[in-house]
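Lab notebook page, bench 4
Experiment: in silico fold of construct C2
Operator: M.H.
Input chain length: 74 residues
Purpose: comparison with the prior construct
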Amino acid sequence: MVLDIVVHKTDDGYTAEVPSLKGCETWAHDEDTVITKVVELVAFYLKTDQKSFKIDKARGNRNRTVYKLIFSKS
């Protein structure tokens, strides 16, 4: 399964969301922390162990970056 993680740089930090999971969004002061937090949320939403997740940077520009969260849900 592959999910998009969209990270936005804002004036006061970073926000991250998984558009395909309603309400799966978070905020943090730095990009690494916001990605960690959103991955924890995805694991909670899908009741999956986050150790099997792989994250790949797909594309980005100055204020918006899209990552691919790749995992097998069995």
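Observations: The two ends are 10 Å apart (CA to CA). Residues 2-70 form a domain with the Double Stranded RNA Binding Domain fold (CATH 3.30.160.250).
Next step: discuss at group meeting.
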